[in-house]
Amino acid sequence: MIKRGGGTARRRERVTALPVGSEKERLAAVCRARGVRGVRDRDLVDLSFMSEERIARLSEELEAEGKIKILSFSPLFLVSSDSFAYLCQKVLGYLEQFHKGHPSLKGIPLERLEARFGASRIVLRLAIKTLEKEEKVKTARDRLMLASHAVSLSPQDEQILSRLEQLYYQGEFRSASLGDVRKEFRLSEERLDRLISILADRKKIIQGPEGLYIHAHWLDDVVAKVRGSGKSEMTVGEFKAMTGLSRKYAIPLLELLDQIGVTRRRGSVREILPE
Asked: Class of the 83-146 domain?
């Protein structure tokens, strides 16, 4: 709701600063002045001579003319179309520069973009969705990158990726926690996370519950065993015997099978669902 009340000298000064013109032109001017921060009810105090209904109607007219975007009506939230287009171009330019300087990294954390541009989170998220729809950017694990970006890896990184994939392919599920892998290859946590995410992007491994990763082919073997068992349901103990896993790792794997529609939990047993 727009605050009403008696005018102060400061408020009168702001109103006087608004451009002379129609009510619609004044509303458009407020949107331009707020830029990528967007306009909320509290930012329209200088337009309190207009009713909320009038402002909503003018907002719809301005949107139809392509001058603003209405992000919500209740509460009211507007952004200038020019400012929105400017933000989209700045995001693309920033990503391009980032990829040039960091070719081995996947992308930029979304929180970093919010701090970089000072845009409202809602405005920035809409800009990202717009760029995704236009197939100019893509997101993965809360990171944003250009759609055309391909990670450039060193020969050493590729060698480590090959060893990691081999470890998972051999079904070394018990020893495949991130901590164990990091220790084995003497990797920093950041570097390991980056390499693991690359394997996941290549669809070589699949992330299960509790931060565990499973090789895609190894998971296919488990699914084939479950569906080829001839059972309509199974207990955790039966699944442990089938896979050779301890309960600590069998439970997360069963939860993953639930997620991908192979099984469904029913009390203490898992129903085996048809393909």
From this structure: mainly alpha
